[in-house]
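Quick one, C-alpha cells below:
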C-alpha cells in the first residue's frame, strides 16, 4: 500500500453522485462469417471512482495544499477510505486529473468533485466464489463465533 494516507481530518465522500466504473477488459473482433470473437485485451482491469466532497474553509484550504504538495499535484498513490461492493475500507488510489472546484455551496462550504483510479479491482478475496453458502452466510457465522467464543 502507498505510504501516503488520505487525511483523517477530512470528511469521506458524499453518497450523492458516488459511482464506480470498471473498464471492460474484453475486445470484440467481427469475423467475415458475421460472428464475432471476444478475447481479453489486458489483465489489468482499472476501476474508477467518481466522488464529491463538501469541505469547510479550513478543510478546503488543507485539501488543496495536500493535493499540491504531498501528492505532487495528484501524481502520487495514496490510501483512501472508500465504499465499494467489497466493503468500506482503505483502497490505494490516485487522481486521474485535477479536482473540479471548489464550488461555493453555502456561506462557507466548498464542493470538490474528483475522479480516482483504484490500483486494484475491488473483488472479494480469491477463492470465496467457490463457497457461495459460506460467503452469503458470513454475517451469521461471524455473529455466532463472536457470541460463542468472544475471547478466543
Amino acid at each position: 500500500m502507498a505510504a501516503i494516507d488520505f487525511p483523517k481530518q477530512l470528511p469521506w465522500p458524499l453518497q450523492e453522485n458516488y459511482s464506480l466504473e470498471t473498464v471492460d477488459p474484453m475486445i470484440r473482433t467481427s469475423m467475415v462469417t458475421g460472428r464475432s470473437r471476444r478475447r481479453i485485451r489486458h489483465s489489468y482491469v482499472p476501476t474508477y471512482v467518481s466522488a464529491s466532497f463538501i469541505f469547510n474553509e479550513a478543510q478546503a484550504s488543507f485539501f488543496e495544499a495536500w493535493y499540491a504538495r504531498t501528492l505532487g499535484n495528484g501524481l502520487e498513490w495514496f490510501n483512501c477510505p472508500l465504499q465499494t461492493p467489497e466493503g468500506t475500507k482503505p483502497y490505494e488510489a490516485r487522481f486521474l486529473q485535477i479536482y473540479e472546484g471548489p464550488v461555493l455551496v453555502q456561506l462557507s462550504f466548498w464542493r470538490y468533485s474528483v475522479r480516482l483510479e483504484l490500483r486494484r479491482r475491488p473483488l472479494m478475496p480469491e477463492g470465496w466464489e467457490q463457497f457461495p453458502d459460506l460467503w452469503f452466510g458470513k454475517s451469521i457465522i461471524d455473529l455466532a463465533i463472536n457470541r460463542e467464543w468472544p475471547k478466543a
